[in-house]
Amino acid sequence: MKYLLNLSSLFCGFSLFLLSTACEQEMPLPKPRAYPKVNYPEKAYRSFDEDYCNFTFKYPTYTNIVQDTNFFDEMPAHPCWFDIYYPDFDSRIYCSYLPITPEKDLETLKSDAFELADWHNKKANYIEERQIDKGEVQGFIFDIEGPVASPFQFYLTDGNKHFFRGSLYFNTQVNPDSLAPIYDFIKEDIVELINTFEWN
Fold first, then answer.
1. pLDDT tens-digit map of 147-156
2. How far is the CA of 191 from the CAs of 12, 121, 123, 155, in angstroms?
3. Is 188 left (phi over 0), alpha (psi -120 to 50) or beta?
4. What total number of domains does the chain contain?
5. 128, part of any domain
6. Bridge partner residues of 137 (DSSP)
7. pLDDT per position as a tens digit, 68-119
8. Main-chain dihedrals φ then ψ at residue 157, nearest 5 degrees
9. Residue 134 falls inside a structural domain
10. Is the pLDDT score of 180 beyond 60?
């Protein structure tokens, strides 16, 4: 019995020694999560003048225009469907054009654009809507805050014949904090597109 008491005392003493030693040493702290450094290209623009569309605008020299040839295993509704692809950020602005017709009138196309933007309300913290009015180019911007798939959408129309819509998507899991600087960079490009947009 005395042997057991001495053994338990020895064990307790050794445990206290280990605890006091551990408290004196600095414990390593986990490093905060870091995001990879992004190298932004220098801002420069060129004219969009593809023959399958009847409008022009300025788009970044560090992007590629990719014409859509497939839409859910079918042909797109119009040849003027394309992406502005950012290879450095693996993101794209999906662009689609439709002529205004009796079957697809202006009110229907506008309603569709508002509905597509409103679909993000499930996850959005806030949606800021801004009207565009540049005479022959009118429309709306939808700036969507929060963990949403498409943080920026817009449409442009002449109110009579033409309707053009764009939406920005990132090919990554949505993390607004890490994407914010890239989003701000691309947003400047979309504003440039809108400001320089003209119907042919």
1. 888 899 999 9
2. 70, 23, 24, 12
3. alpha
4. 1
5. yes
6. 134
7. 887 656 777 789 999 999 999 999 999 999 999 999 999 999 999 999 888 8
8. -150, 160
9. yes
10. yes
